């Protein structure tokens, strides 16, 4: 069933969606014929309007949802059943958009140690991994704290810690700086920027795109359109990072003063 995990690592493709379709019961199809490939060391921004299916796409990759058409491949393995996803899920790290969906243990240490325990670490090893992970995120001493009493920003960082503690090869980040103040967001981005993992990041926030991503794809009308990341000065007050569909020239005006723009044009290209 697909190639081995060792072979997948050699070819450098961590996750791939091939002609994927998906729809929620009683609703029109959300994704149709969608293709995406995430390679080793890639950091991809996934952008699109609310309701386009960005979170759904992340959930398909980790097997929380199953496509109605097409294939999901993780580390070269065709993943169709829960057993297939269970074999590779430890190599993936999904940080949910809402931290309360991710945190369910009584204490912070219990939450962060949960993943390493399920990967076969001893309780002592898991606790040590959890403490180290919390420390690098600026949460030293948080282990005994009651999770549901944390602030929104603190929960966000703990949710990330639960994922990083498992040392995944691919991070799937759904609005990673949501709910964080400027100082906490900057600290989080500094840490993420120094990690070796590939990343697929749902965000529209300029600091996230500037620090973490090397290419971007726009999800609209059920499919992905590649867009280019570049910086240029024009009719805005400041020079900003911009997203443009492939082939768009940089010499033009914008009517908006939003710091990040996605411009769909007719010259669509298939996603690799």
From TrEMBL:
**Which SMART domains does the record match to this protein?**
AAA
Entries under Gene3D superfamilies matching the protein: P-loop containing nucleotide triphosphate hydrolases
Output the superkingdom of the source species: Bacteria
Entry keyword set: ATP-binding, Nucleotide-binding, Transport
Domain ABC transporter, chain residue ranges per copy: 15-246
One GO CC term, this protein? ATP-binding cassette (ABC) transporter complex
- A GO molecular-function descriptor: ATP hydrolysis activity
UniProt cross-references to InterPro entries, sorted A to Z:
AAA+_ATPase, ABC_transporter-like_ATP-bd, ABC_transporter-like_CS, ABC_transpr_CbiO/EcfA_su, ECF_ABC_transporter_ATP-bd, P-loop_NTPase
| Protein family per UniProt | Belongs to the ABC transporter superfamily.
Q: What is this protein called?
A: Cobalt ABC transporter ATP-binding protein
């Amino acid at each position: 069933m697909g190639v081995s995990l060792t072979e997948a690592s050699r070819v450098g493709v961590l996750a791939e969606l091939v002609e994927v379709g998906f729809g929620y019961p009683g609703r029109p199809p959300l994704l149709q014929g969608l293709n995406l490939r995430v390679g080793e060391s890639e950091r991809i921004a996934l952008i699109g309007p609310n309701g386009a299916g960005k979170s759904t796409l992340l959930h398909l990759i980790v097997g929380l949802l199953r496509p109605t058409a097409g294939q999901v491949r993780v580390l070269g393995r065709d993943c169709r059943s829960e057993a297939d996803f269970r074999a590779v899920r430890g190599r993936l790290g999904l940080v949910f958009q809402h931290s309360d969906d991710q945190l369910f243990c009584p204490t912070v240490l219990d939450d962060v140690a949960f993943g390493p325990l399920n990967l076969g670490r001893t309780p002592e090893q898991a606790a040590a991994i959890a403490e180290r992970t919390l420390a690098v995120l600026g949460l030293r001493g948080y282990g005994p704290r009651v999770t549901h009493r944390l602030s929104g920003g603190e929960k966000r960082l703990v949710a990330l810690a639960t994922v990083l503690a498992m040392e995944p090869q691919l991070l799937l980040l759904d609005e990673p700086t949501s709910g964080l103040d400027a100082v906490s967001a900057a600290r989080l981005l500094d840490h993420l920027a120094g990690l070796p993992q590939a990343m697929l990041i749902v965000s529209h926030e300029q600091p996230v795109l500037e620090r973490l991503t090397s290419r971007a794809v726009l999800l609209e009308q059920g499919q992905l359109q590649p867009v280019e990341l570049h910086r240029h000065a024009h009719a805005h007050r400041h020079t900003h990072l911009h997203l443009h569909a492939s082939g768009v020239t940089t010499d033009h005006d914008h009517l908006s003063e939003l710091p990040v723009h996605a411009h769909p044009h007719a010259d669509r290209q298939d996603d690799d």
